[in-house]
Specification:
Layout (H helix, E strand, L loop, with lengths): L19 E10 L3 H9 L4 H4 L3 E5 L13 E6 L8 E9 L7 E9 L7 E12 L3 E11 L1 H8 L4 H19 L4
Antiparallel strand pairs: 1-7, 2-3, 3-4, 4-5, 5-6, 6-7
Length: about 180
């Protein structure tokens, strides 16, 4: 039996304890975790393969490649009530032989209670036997906006993250080098 790795969750943000949670995953042949990681962590590539994000900036310097502790902002597209997100990378470990890559950022939107949003967006990228790669992304959100998103059918966050995964895999497949 094969056991797959899981996202490392802080206790205060466990799935099911917030107002909205989604999980998206793809497993594809012919890619490596290192190649996918390159496109996932280089924010300068995001807008080329994912239409729901724009305006990425690094108010404390650094970037465009994410690393542990990187602070960045971005504007979600397609979510009318969600404004600029202020994010900090809270987990960063590149994939290595037998070890999945792990990337998580905590983000928030300030404002009055009806506009506040707390987010933890996590990624896991791992090589699987048979020349396959698994990319898992999960997000938990807390706040009134999150609860409103969770009630929508279809869930726009679920669909948005699937578009991100599909774009990421497409970019990694079409790109050059690892």
């Amino acid at each position: 039996m094969t056991v797959q790795n899981a996202i490392d969750w802080p206790e205060d943000q466990l799935p099911g304890t917030g107002d909205n949670f989604v999980s998206n995953e793809v497993i594809v042949r012919g890619l490596t975790a290192a190649r996918v990681w390159r496109y996932l962590t280089d924010t300068s590539t995001w807008e080329s393969y994912y239409d729901n994000i724009t305006g990425i900036s690094f108010p404390e310097g650094g970037g465009p490649v994410l690393s542990d502790g990187t602070v960045f902002t971005f504007d979600p597209v397609g979510f009318p009530s969600v404004r600029t997100q202020h994010a900090r990378v809270v987990q960063f470990r590149a994939p290595a032989e037998g070890t999945p890559g792990r990337l998580s950022w905590a983000a928030h939107q300030d404002g009055p209670p009806e506009e506040r949003l707390e987010v933890l967006h996590a990624w896991l990228v791992e090589d699987l036997p048979g020349g396959r790669v698994r990319v898992l992304t999960q997000e938990t959100q807390t706040g009134r906006l999150a609860a409103e998103l969770a009630r929508q059918v279809p869930n726009p966050m679920l669909n948005g993250h699937q578009a991100w995964l599909d774009g990421l895999v497409g970019a990694a497949s079409a790109g050059s080098g690892a």
